[in-house]
Amino acid sequence: MTLVRRRLTITPTVTVYLALAALLVIGSILVGANGGVLLDQSGILNILTRSTLLGLVAIGQTMVIVTGSLDLSVAYLAGLCSLVTAETMAGRTSMMVPGVLLALAVAAVVGLINGLVITVLKANAFIATLGVALILRGYLEHNYTGPAGSVPRAFQHLGYDRIGPVPVSALLVLLIGTAVWWFSRRTRTGYHLYAVGGDTEVARLSGVRTSRTIVTAHVLCASMAGLAGVLLAARLGSGAPYAGTDAGYDLESIAAAVLGGAVLTGGRGGVVGTIGGVLILATLDTVFDDLAVDPFLKDVVRGVVLVAAVALYARHRLSRRSS
Amino acid sequence: MNDVLVRLEGVTKSFLGVPVLRGIDLELRAGEVHALVGENGAGKSTLLKVLAGAHRPDAGRILVGDREVSFAAPRDAQAAGIAIIHQEFNLLPHRTVAENVYLGREPVRRGQVDRRAMTAGTQRLLEWMGEDGIEPDAEVARLPVARRQVVEIVKALSADAKVLAMDEPTAALAGSEVDRLCDLVRRLRERGIAILYVSHRLREVFELSQRITVLKDGAFVSCSPTEDLSPGELVRQMVGRPLGTLYPARDSDPGEVRLALRGAGNGRLRDLSFDVRAGEIVGLAGLQGSGRSAVARAIWGVEPFTSGVVELDGEPTTITGPRSAVRNGIGYVTEDRQGDGLALRQSVRDNALLVRRAALRGAAARRDSDLGSLLESVAVVARGPDQEVRYLSGGNQQKVVLGKWLAVSPRILIVDEPTRGIDVGAKQTVYRLLRKLAADGLAILMIASELPELLGMSDRILVLHNGAIAGELPAGTSEEAVMGLATGHGLGEV
Ligand SMILES: Nc1ncnc2c1ncn2[C@@H]1O[C@H](COP(=O)(O)OP(=O)(O)OP(=O)(O)O)[C@@H](O)[C@H]1O
Ligand SMILES: [Mg+2]
Question: Which residues contact B343 (CB under 8 A, 6 or more apart)?
Answer without folding.
Answer: B350, B351, B354, B389
